[in-house]
């Protein structure tokens, strides 16, 4: 099995290390990865935010599974694009990832569903933020 981990931070390093310990001994790739990850996975020079380039790399490398670490490619719909290309992915759809990617959207959903949550105010710049704090 060939597994591609997307990202290059500590979370992705931990994922690669855990996958490297698997008794199934998958072949590991990581995009873009980092020098520490390179000890356990072959790095691909593809930016974690480049959805179409990641899909193309997964197809070209005959990847069996993609594990997505960072929030941004999840929100951008990477798992949806991989599914459209027939590649299995571990991660939520872009619509589901929006709950994590947008705190304002998550608050709207909680309010609409009747989930108790502290009051909030959405601001768009420093001046609005300062005015909100001032009361």
Describe the structure.
By secondary structure, the protein is of the alpha/beta class. It has 2 domains: 2-94, Rossmann fold; 102-134, no CATH class. Helix content is 45%, strand content 16%. It has 7 helices and 5 strands. It has helices at residues 10-20, 51-60, 71-75, 78-84, 94-101, 103-113, 126-134, and strands spanning 2-7, 27-32, 42-43, 65-68, 88-90. It has a 5-stranded parallel sheet with strand order 3-2-1-4-5, sandwiched between helices.
Q: Could you spell the SSE succession in H and E letters?
A: EHEEHEHHEHHH
Tell how many strands the DSSP assignment holds: 5
CATH topology-level name of the largest domain: Rossmann fold
Structure classification: alpha/beta
Oligomer: single chain
N- and C-termini, Cα separation: 57 Å
Which sheet architecture does the biggest sheet show? 5 strands, parallel
Radius of gyration using CA atoms only: 18 Å
Number of structural domains: 2
What does the overall shape look like?
Answer: elongated
In the predicted model, the low-confidence regions spanning at least 5 consecutive residues are none
Q: Counting H and I runs of at least 4 residues, what is the number of helices?
A: 7
What is the beta-strand fraction? Answer: 15-25%
Strand order of the largest sheet: 3-2-1-4-5
Helix content estimate? 40-55%
Quick recap:
The protein is of the alpha/beta class. Helices cover about 45% and strands about 15% of the residues. Strand 1, helix 1 and strand 2 form a beta-alpha-beta unit.
Topology readout:
Elements: E1 2-7, H1 10-20, E2 27-32, E3 42-43, H2 51-60, E4 65-68, H3 71-75, H4 78-84, E5 88-90, H5 94-101, H6 103-113, H7 126-134
Parallel strand pairs: 1-2, 1-4, 2-3, 4-5
Helix pairs in contact: 5-6
């Amino acid at each position: 099995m060939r597994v591609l981990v997307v990202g290059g931070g500590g979370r992705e390093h931990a994922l690669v290390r855990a996958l490297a310990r698997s008794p199934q001994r998958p072949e590991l790739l990581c995009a873009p990865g980092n020098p520490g990850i390179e000890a356990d996975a072959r790095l691909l020079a593809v930016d974690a935010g480049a959805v179409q380039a990641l899909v193309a790399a997964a197809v070209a490398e005959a990847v069996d599974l993609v594990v997505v670490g960072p929030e941004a490619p999840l929100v951008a719909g990477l798992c949806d694009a991989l599914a459209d290309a027939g590649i299995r992915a571990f991660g939520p759809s872009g619509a589901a990832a929006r709950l994590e990617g947008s705190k304002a959207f998550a608050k709207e959903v909680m309010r609409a569903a009747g989930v108790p949550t502290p009051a909030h105010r959405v601001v768009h710049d420093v001046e609005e933020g300062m005015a909100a704090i001032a009361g």
